[in-house]
Every structure is written in structure tokens, then in C-alpha cells.
Write a structure and sequence with these properties.
Length: 418
């Protein structure tokens, strides 16, 4: 199954707001009134207008005119160590949703069911002996002790080993053997509505972010800190992520009766190591229909990012790497000096899907920026010859200077900041 593009929706919105796409058509916002009942005060839902851009993106639901933030807002930032992973995790999850929820029929809303406390309890280690760890979805720190209850059933009661008595080397080895795999859980909701039907939840999309490297630190009795990192086997991480996904579905169905008839989509996101210059990617997805609990099958997502210029990109995609080098050389010849130019390519199923190029300049004049922007816009199509979105961001020590966005079968969109 191929899922639709969403990654450049934010760019389209940015260009609209900055006024550089004057020909876009825009619908009026739609207002839905939910009348007052014994349980709910009268509410006004506003569906933000549709903007006709080359890339479709979800309209948003506003409650009484206000954007509704998730009660778990902030958990993503604190749980993941790489900023570019955070951005791709959130935006990519919206893209995955478009395989099941048409942008023309559904509206986006941040998650409302999973609170920050709930997500924090899930990303802890599992230890049934302590209440704050009893709902953890990450591996326990070693084997668990099992006892029989009054009904003769075996239940887990806590860790079999007293980890508090271990030395720093012993404890570090135990933690390496039982790494924290799950780093975050992200919920998105997709609703549909009309003046006649009101607003209803049509589907829930859950992202599970999985570590590539387990970073941890320990302190000895003297307060000295020891830092460790343990690279993880990605196949094992994916397998563990799928096990966690089934537990997540079970918990949602069990603890939220009103979600019994709501489909749940779950996607696994593989992070990159700390300090990586390209983001992680989604590696697998599954869809559980309404009134179902068991996950039947998973669909692999073949997605990867490459940085230009780099040896990895040159080895994997030499033609694209050569085109980037040519573009960079022509830009520097045009300016008569070296310019910091880097790129990031997104590839799906072995083919490029998006290309982003960033200029980082020092001193300049406004006339130079205008000329460079015009020259770049004319060269990106001829040099790369790609039927994918291409974005060029020209920045300097003073901040953003200009932007060029080229969509397939459209003339480039250009904006120069004043």
C-alpha cells in the first residue's frame, strides 16, 4: 500500500501566509454548533478553510475558535534527543494517516485521549512491584519473580534480583542487556463532521518512536557519573515495537469504551543516533479496524534519508549526488565564492521522493540575494529533472533571505524576505 505525501504541506501553508502564491483558491471556514445537553454545554466547532495547493493537507478543528492542544504536549520534546527526529515523527505520522483518512473528508486534531502522565507511565521500565512502573512498556531490568495467587494463577510480583545492591559495572551490564527501546508515544485524531451530524472521531493514529541507540548514565557512591551508549539491533527493536503496539491497542480498547468502534492505526518510527544530520524514518505500519483488538499484519515502510554531499549518498544514489554537486558548483560560480550548500533527500522504495537544499551565506547584498534566488529557481528543474517537490532555502547570518519551492508540473514559487 502506498501512502500519500504530506511532508511539504507545511511549506505550502507558509508560502500562502507570506503572500507569494496569489492564485490559490480558499474556501470559507465551516462552523458546526453542538447544542447544549445535560452532559455538554453548547460548543462551537470551526473547521479551518481548505486552501487549494499542489499538496493537500488536513484542515484543523477549532473548539470555540481555539486550537486544541494535546494534554500530552511536551512529552515528545522531553523523550526524544534529536530535534530533527521530533519533527519527522510528528509530520510523518500525518502523512501515514492520509492512507486511511482522506484530507477532503477528515479533519486533524491533536490527541485527546492519552495524557502526558499516561505516556510517561508507558515509556518507563515494567516493574509490577512499583505502581509508577506497573504500566511500563519497556523491558524490565532483568528477570521477574513469579508467584501463584489464590486462584492458582502465576502472576509477576517484581524483579527477581535486587538491583540496588549491584555495582556500577554490574548494573551497566544489566541495563545494556535490557535497553529502553520505546522512547515516545504520539497520538493524532482524525474527525469528520457536518452541521447535521456534529463532530465525530473517525480514527486514531498512534506513533511509537523506537531508539537506535540506548543512552544512559549511572552514579557511584561518591557521586561520580558514568555515561554509556548501547547500539541496538534494529531487527530486534522492530520486533519489540510490534509487541508494544499490540499492548497499546489492548489498553486503548480496554480503558476507553467510547473508542471501541474507532479504527486505530499504529506506525513504528525508527530514530537515528544522537547528533545525526538526517532524521529517522517510519519502518512499519498496521491498521486495526473498528471493534477489533488483534493486529493481523504489518506493512513495511521503505523510507530513508540521505545528506548531500556525503559518501553515503554518493554510494547509494550516485546520479542524485552528482546532480547536487553540479548545482552547488554552479551556484558558487555564479556568486564567485564558496557558499555553504547542503541538501537532504528523502527516498521511498529506492526512489527519491523529496529534496531540500539549504544555503548558508555570510555577507551579501539584497540585490545578490534576488539574483541568486532567480538563478537557483531556473537551475533546479534543469539540473535535477525530478518529478518530486524541491525546496531551496537561502539563509544568511541575518536569518532567512529567500525561498524557492518547485512542485512537479508547476512553476517555481519564489519569495524574497524584505
Amino acid at each position: 500500500m502506498m501512502y500519500k505525501k504530506f511532508f511539504f504541506a507545511c511549506i505550502g501553508l507558509l508560502l500562502f501566509l507570506t503572500g507569494c502564491i496569489p492564485s490559490l483558491d480558499q474556501e470559507e471556514e465551516e462552523i458546526i454548533i453542538v447544542e447544549e445537553t445535560d452532559d455538554v454545554d453548547e460548543q462551537q466547532f470551526i473547521l479551518t478553510p481548505t486552501i487549494d495547493t499542489p499538496e493537500n493537507f488536513y484542515r484543523t478543528v477549532l473548539l470555540d475558535g481555539e486550537y486544541q492542544r494535546s494534554p500530552a504536549r511536551g512529552v515528545v520534546a522531553s523523550a526524544m534527543t534529536n530535534r530533527i527526529d521530533i519533527n519527522q515523527f510528528e509530520v510523518g505520522l500525518m502523512e501515514i494517516a492520509s492512507a486511511f483518512y482522506e484530507q477532503s473528508e477528515y479533519y486533524f486534531q491533536e490527541g485527546t485521549y492519552l495524557s502526558g502522565d499516561t505516556i510517561n507511565s508507558w515509556i518507563r521500565r515494567y516493574n509490577p512491584a512499583e505502581s509508577r512502573y506497573a504500566r511500563g512498556l519497556n523491558p524490565s531490568l532483568g528477570e521477574l519473580e513469579v508467584e501463584e495467587n489464590e486462584d492458582g494463577e502465576e502472576i509477576e510480583v517484581g524483579l527477581a534480583e535486587d538491583v540496588d545492591s549491584l555495582s556500577v559495572p554490574e548494573l551497566s551490564e544489566l541495563m545494556r542487556e535490557n535497553p529502553l527501546v520505546l522512547s515516545n508515544v504520539l497520538e493524532h485524531n482524525y474527525v469528520y463532521g457536518s452541521a447535521e451530524e456534529g463532530v465525530n472521531l473517525g480514527g486514531m493514529v498512534i506513533g511509537l518512536s523506537l531508539r537506535a541507540v540506548y543512552y544512559f548514565q549511572l552514579y557511584d557512591d561518591d557521586g561520580k557519573m558514568y555515561q554509556y551508549e548501547q547500539p541496538l539491533e534494529l531487527d530486534e527493536v522492530e520486533e519489540k515495537g510490534k509487541e508494544i503496539a499490540q499492548q497499546v491497542v489492548n489498553r486503548i480498547r480496554t480503558h476507553h469504551e467510547d473508542l471501541a468502534e474507532v479504527p486505530i492505526t499504529i506506525a513504528l518510527f525508527q530514530e537515528r543516533p544522537r547528533g545525526s544530520i538526517v532524521p529517522g524514518s517510519f519502518i512499519a505500519m498496521t491498521h486495526v479496524e473498528e471493534n477489533e483488538t488483534g493486529i493481523q499484519e504489518w506493512e513495511a515502510i521503505n523510507e530513508e534519508f540521505y545528506f548531500f554531499p556525503s559518501r553515503a549518498a554518493r554510494q547509494a544514489y550516485p546520479n542524485h549526488s552528482n546532480a547536487f554537486e553540479q548545482f552547488k558548483d554552479e551556484m558558487e560560480q555564479f556568486m564567485g565564492r564558496s557558499i555553504g550548500i547542503v541538501g537532504k533527500g528523502r527516498f521511498k522504495n529506492g526512489a527519491i521522493d523529496e529534496l531540500t537544499i539549504e544555503f548558508n551565506m555570510q555577507s551579501h547584498g539584497k540585490a545578490e540575494i534576488i539574483a541568486l534566488t532567480q538563478f537557483a529557481s531556473g537551475r533546479i528543474e534543469e539540473i535535477f529533472n525530478l518529478q518530486v517537490p524541491i525546496s531551496v532555502y537561502i539563509n544568511s547570518i541575518n536569518g532567512p533571505e529567500s525561498i524557492v519551492v518547485k512542485y512537479p508540473d508547476h512553476d517555481p514559487f519564489i519569495h524574497v524576505y524584505k
